[in-house]
Design a protein that fits this description.
Blueprint lengths: L15 H30 L5 H6 L3 E4 L8 E6 L2 E7 L2 H7 L2 H4 L27 E5 L10 E3 L14 E3 L6 E3 L19 E4 L2 E4 L17
Antiparallel strand pairs: 1-9, 2-3, 3-4, 5-6, 6-7, 8-9
C-alpha cells in the first residue's frame, strides 16, 4: 500500500506565499506596537510622582516655567486635583474689578479656605500663579476651566473662571465662589511654597503651619 502525504490546506484568500507574508507582516507590526508601548510607558510614568509619594502625601514639585500665560495645568497631590494657573495681567485686573467683586460670595477670603499667606484678593503667594484644590465645594465635582472673558460662553457676561458641570456653581480665577450658586465656599488653597519658578505643593513657607485638613470644606 502506498502512503500518501497530505499537505496542510492553503489558507483562504490567496496563495500560500502571499498569505504567509501578510501574516508575518501583521505579526511584526503587532510586536512593534507592543514594544513601542512598553518603551514609552516608563517615560510617561516618570512624569508623574511615584505612587508611594502620593499615598504618603509628600510634597510634590512642579516647574512653572513651562506654564504659559493663560494656561492651566492639573497635578495630583494627596489624591486631589490641584489647579495651577498662570494668570495674565488682564485676568488680574478683572479679579480686582468692582463689578466682579459685587457678585462674589466671599471676595476677601474671610472663610477659612486658604492659608494665611493666601488670604488676599488673588488668594495666592504670587498674583501671577493661582494654586487651588480643583474640587467644587458643593458636591465634589471638578469645575471646568473657562479662562477667557466672553459675552455668552459658558454663561452670559462671563469674566473668566470656572463653571462646575454638575450643578452650575461658578468661581473666578482666584477660586472665589459666586453668590447665589449651590457651592457655599471658595475653592480651597493647599499649602505650598514658591521658589522662583518652582512650586512645592504640600509644604508651607518657613514659619507657617497650615494644614489643608483645617479648611471649612474641601
Amino acid at each position: 500500500m502506498s502512503s500518501t502525504t497530505h499537505s496542510a490546506p492553503e489558507p483562504h484568500g490567496g496563495t500560500d506565499g502571499t498569505t504567509r507574508r501578510d501574516f508575518l507582516t501583521m505579526l511584526a507590526l503587532a510586536s512593534a506596537a507592543v514594544g513601542a508601548g512598553a518603551a514609552a510607558w516608563p517615560f510617561i510614568d516618570s512624569m508623574e510622582p511615584a505612587a508611594d509619594t502620593l499615598a504618603a502625601g509628600e510634597p510634590i514639585e512642579v516647574d512653572l516655567s513651562k506654564v504659559a500665560p493663560g494656561q492651566q495645568i492639573v497635578v495630583v497631590w494627596r489624591g486631589k486635583p490641584i489647579f495651577i494657573v498662570h494668570r495674565t495681567p488682564e485676568a488680574l485686573q478683572t479679579l480686582q474689578s468692582p463689578k466682579l467683586i459685587s457678585i462674589l460670595s466671599d471676595p476677601n477670603s474671610h472663610v477659612n479656605q486658604q492659608p494665611d499667606y493666601a488670604e488676599n484678593w488673588h488668594r495666592s503667594v504670587d498674583p501671577t500663579y493661582a494654586i487651588m484644590v480643583g474640587i467644587c465645594t458643593h458636591l465634589g465635582c471638578v469645575p471646568s476651566f473657562y479662562p477667557n472673558i466672553s459675552a455668552t460662553d459658558p454663561a452670559p457676561n462671563w469674566p473668566g473662571g470656572y463653571l462646575c458641570p454638575c450643578h452650575g456653581s461658578k468661581y473666578d480665577l482666584a477660586g472665589r465662589v459666586y453668590s447665589g450658586v449651590p457651592a457655599p465656599y471658595n475653592l480651597p488653597v493647599p499649602p505650598y511654597q514658591l521658589n522662583g519658578k518652582t512650586v512645592r505643593i504640600g509644604e508651607n513657607p518657613a514659619g507657617n503651619t497650615f494644614d489643608l485638613n483645617s479648611v471649612v470644606q474641601i
